[in-house]
Amino acid sequence: MIDRPFTRLAVSLAVTALSALAGSARAQSSVTMFGVADLAARSVHNEGAAAMSSLVSGSNSTSRIGFRGIEDLGDGLSAGFHLESGMLLDTGSNVGGNQFFDRRATLSLASRTLGEVRAGRDFVPSYVGWTRFDPFSYVGVAGSNNLVSASPAGPIRSTFGSAANTTVRSSNSIQYILPANAAGIDGGLMVAAGEGALAASGTHRVMGARLGYASGAIVVSAALTQTENSATVADKFKDATIGASYDFGVVKLSAAWRRFSLGSPRQTNMLLAAVVPIGLGDLKLSYLKADLDGRVGATNIGTADATQWGLGYVYNLSKRSALYATASRISNEGAATFAVPGGSAAPKAGGTSSGYEAGLRHSF
Predict the structure, then answer these.
(1) Which helix (H) or strand (E) holds 308?
(2) Does any domain span residue 283?
(3) Cα-Cα-Cα-Cα dihedral of 155, 159, 164, 168, to 10°?
(4) How far apart are CA 363 and CA 141, in angstroms?
(5) E strands of 19-76, at which residues?
(6) Which of 4, 69, 218, 269 could bridge to 29 as Cys pair (CB 3.0-4.6 Å)?
(7) Is 131 in a helix, a strand, or coil?
(8) Residue 25 has what DSSP assignment?
């Protein structure tokens, strides 16, 4: 027979261990792995260059893998992290090279009533504001990013050259983000340390702000992001955007305006878009105009304009999987060489660029 003191000791130790485990479980963060796998067959023809066919990753939604976690600290407070890496599913490599978590790498402290403080690498306010209205999500042959390029002389190339720019993300940032329950109002502020602010190395000082409103069928948003580096001695690079959409049920209409400027050289992009629910999917149509103005040194860039038409359909197989097909055409003017991604070479100055693709997207 086991003596009672030993039994009492064993029970006491078991209760203590279980209590410790329960307390540890309450303190643990919930961690989620997530991602998107997206592959498409694409064909691109740029005027003056050979046609190119390829298998490409992320044409409907950027292929990615990520991890996010949150810990409830009580009293409406939480701590969290978000790590996200872009993937090239056709080759198995990551988009960012040595910068593994290229899409986002942030740590945050949030309050349900006061908002969130977030630090790390994240999307800049102007990008967040603009992409709310791009039906092609800034990717693929019809994404509005096709007319955001450093290839023609203009404010973007003058500020960043071929190095990393701040038209999408900024590293070394600290943000304040409004709480999600702020009566339909959303927005935030961003600042980023330059850490030398050398254009050639892709480090920049950034300040930005965004304010939006979403209620029912209507969405409006405005944002401004300002960048300084060693190339912005006389003027700051500014990225301003404003847009709105209204969902009529049978069609959702969007319009957005975005301007990149560095003193005299400016690029203004105008977007008009429609999304029509048809069957188990959505028909998407967009028109985009890039208008350049001013001078870069002795070069007048006022004739280097372009337009892009995009048409696509996404058929939802389930909540997580979809088939899609997209086509687009860019018409350049003057010295402009904007292009659909995936061509064998850039189009000739003032030439056309066209492409189409079909693929499968799966979210997990």
Answers:
(1) strand 306-316
(2) yes
(3) -50
(4) 20
(5) 30-46, 52-57, 64-74
(6) 69
(7) helix
(8) H
Residues spanned by the domain of 356: 32-363
Q: Is residue 210 part of a domain?
A: yes
SS3 at position 254: strand
Which tokens hold the place of 246? Answer: 């209204």
Determine, yes or no, domain membership for 8: no
- Interstrand relation of 306-316 and 93-94 (parallel, antiparallel or unpaired): unpaired
Around 275, how many Cα atoms within 13 Å sit in the side-chain half-sphere?
Answer: 17
> Residue 22 corresponds to which tokens in the numbers above?
């329960």
Q: What span, in angstroms and rounded, lies between the C-alpha atoms of 333 and 315?
A: 35
Task: Tell me which H or E stretch contains 228.
Answer: strand 218-228
The kind and range of the H/E element at 329 are: strand 321-332
Lookup: tokens for 357: 């693709």
- Parallel, antiparallel, or unpaired for β 93-94 and 77-88? antiparallel
The tally of domains found in the chain comes to 1
Here the CATH number for the domain that contains residue 225 is 2.40.160.10
Polymer length of the chain: 364
Q: How far apart are CA 38 and CA 292, in angstroms?
A: 33
Residue 21 phi, psi (nearest 5): -65, -40
C-alpha count within 13 angstroms, C-beta hemisphere, residue 289: 7
Q: How far is the C-alpha of 175 from the C-alpha of 192, rounded, in Å?
A: 9
- Residue 364, both tokens: 């997990």
Burial of 74 by CB count in 10 Å (0-12 exposed, 13-18 middle, 19+ buried)? Answer: exposed
Would 301 be classed as within a structural domain? yes
CA–centroid distance for 84 within its chain: 12
Please name the residues in contact with 227: beta carbons below 8 A apart, sequence gap of 6 or more: 159, 165, 166, 204, 205, 206, 236, 237, 238, 239
Averages of pLDDT over runs of 10 residues in the chain (364 residues) are 44 42 53 98 98 98 98 96 97 88 98 97 98 98 91 79 87 96 93 79 88 97 94 87 99 98 93 98 98 88 94 98 99 95 95 98 98
Interval 120-154: pLDDT, tens: 999 999 999 999 999 999 999 999 999 997 666 78
Q: Using the structure block, give the residue that is written with the tokens 């007048």.
A: 300
